[in-house]
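**User:** Hello, beginner here. Are you able to go through the protein record under this note? It all follows right here:
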Amino acid sequence: MSTFEFLFQGILVAMQPMNLLYAFVGVTLGTAVGVLPGIGPALTVALLLPVTYKLDPAGSLIMFAGIYYGGMYGGSTTSILLNTPGESASIVTALEGNKMARAGRGGPALATAAIGSFVAGLIATLGLAFIAPYIVKLALIFGPREYFALMVLAFVTVSSAFGDSALRGLTSLFVGFALAMVGIDQQTGQARLSFGIPDLLDGIEVTTLAVAMFAIGETLYIAAQANRGEDKVEAVKGSLWMTAQDWGRSWKAWLRGTLIGFPIGAMPAGGAEIGTFLSYATEKRLAKNPEEFGHGAIEGVAGPEAANNASAAGTLVPLLTLGLPTTATAAIMLAGFQQYGLQPGPLLFANNPQLVWGLIASLLIANAMLLVLNLPLIGLWVRLLTIPKPWLYAGILLFATLGTIGANPSVFELGMLLAFGVLGYIMRLFGYPIAPVVVGLILGPLAEQQLRRALAISQGDVTTLVTSPIAAGLLLVAAAAFIIPLILRIRGRGEVLSQLAASED
């Protein structure tokens, strides 16, 4: 069947009443957590993993994707009104958006962010639908060597794309590898690193680790910074609607941001942060009045927000077709797939086409829902910023604990939840990314299995790992994945830092 036929079938799946409800719940939760500073979509999806493990897989994954898109939308509200980006991808939005809010133009800033997100999400989701089948056709010819090289690329991706240091990312990744070795060896049946504890024979639960590292660790980290000053929320003054001049200055920035954000999000070492920095730099270069940048230029909000949401759809390209997570939320979604015994990749398109295409089609519906939710209800989202943080994070801690008990009622599991939560707090404290730990736990056993198969086929000849053109190409991309993010970050951040210095002067 053609892509149009698959997409039409996916729309039929996404339009089922229960799936529409899941999408609505997802985008509402995503917007709420995006608005709240310090809480991102990765934390929310991690919290919901143990709660949704008995639900329908398609509905749960649709809800997770809605949270991802909604979190990207909601993050702009915090950046513009509070000057506190909830995620690194919203840093650039705060530069111009908060200046617009202080000047009494918070409404147009929020409007251009919402409409730009809708335009970018729509175009990028269609791009995902048409590009994914070609990548799947290529991946279907993979053997053990190619899959192992793909896993190496995934490991390099998570170590270089998350955090500011590739060395720290690798350290976190090897922590995940160590945890992945706990349990029964898949090929020999021998117990490894179980230390005689029966509860460890089944290995470390991905759900427990994800909830502990993202929710418990984040709660402890925020509680340790309780003496921070109060954040000032800029009131939304004047009309929420954009003027004709605002529209004229924004629409080109939306398209440029989409064209920048989507391919960078789809890159193995991409991510939303890089696209927003490059979009901001591009808009400043092309602006008719570059002197307005740093004082509330609407292009500086429109372009980066479009790039931010386009990269969210782009991130799903390597996740769904190859099983490569390039953001923390994608890593948690990978855990969500495995929770239902599903492994993202080419076989997922072959074996579960209704689920995959229903998920892709649901993004189009979620995008429309988000536009309806964001503009009329902006006053409601702003009120969320007044929730006392002790109440907020105490609720997260309680929800995480109850969810873990519901998924696995075991005292030992609760002990691991606390232990991994403390580990997550320590890693955050010293600047180590936590997403690579989850990815190492998920993909480590798969990489080990494919490596053993490749060596068994070649009778132990290691050189055969690079004799395959596809495997050699993937390994070269993995090597480049260390270099490309550094170059892009240096170029993009150089522009932003110079802008910050100019604004301080």
